[in-house]
Write a structure and sequence with these properties.
The chain is mainly alpha-helical. The chain is about 70% helix and about 0% strand. Helix 3 crosses helix 4. The longest helix has 21 residues. The protein is elongated, with a radius of gyration of 13 Å.
C-alpha cells in the first residue's frame, strides 16, 4: 500500500522508541496511559513525545510534498 510505504519512509531513521510509540498508538490502539505504564514514565511524557513525533512526521511529509495520504 502506497500510504504505508510513505509512512515507512518518513519513519526511517527515527529512534526505535519513537517508532514503537507510533506502532503501539496506531497499530495496536494503545492509550497514552498504557504506553506510559509499559515504559514506566508519565502519561504526560508520552503525550509530549507523541506531539513532537507528529510535528516531525508532518515536516517529513512536507519535504516529500505530500499533504494528504489519501490523494
Amino acid at each position: 500500500d502506497e500510504a504505508a510505504a510513505l509512512l515507512a519512509r518518513c519513519c526511517a531513521g527515527m529512534p526505535a522508541r519513537h517508532r514503537q510509540l507510533l506502532a503501539w498508538r496506531y497499530r495496536d490502539a494503545m492509550t497514552f496511559a498504557a504506553i506510559a505504564g509499559r515504559w514506566g514514565v508519565t502519561e504526560v511524557a508520552v503525550h509530549r513525545m507523541h506531539g513532537r513525533l507528529l510535528v516531525t512526521l508532518r515536516a517529513r511529509l512536507a519535504e516529500l510534498r505530500v499533504t494528504r495520504l489519501d490523494e
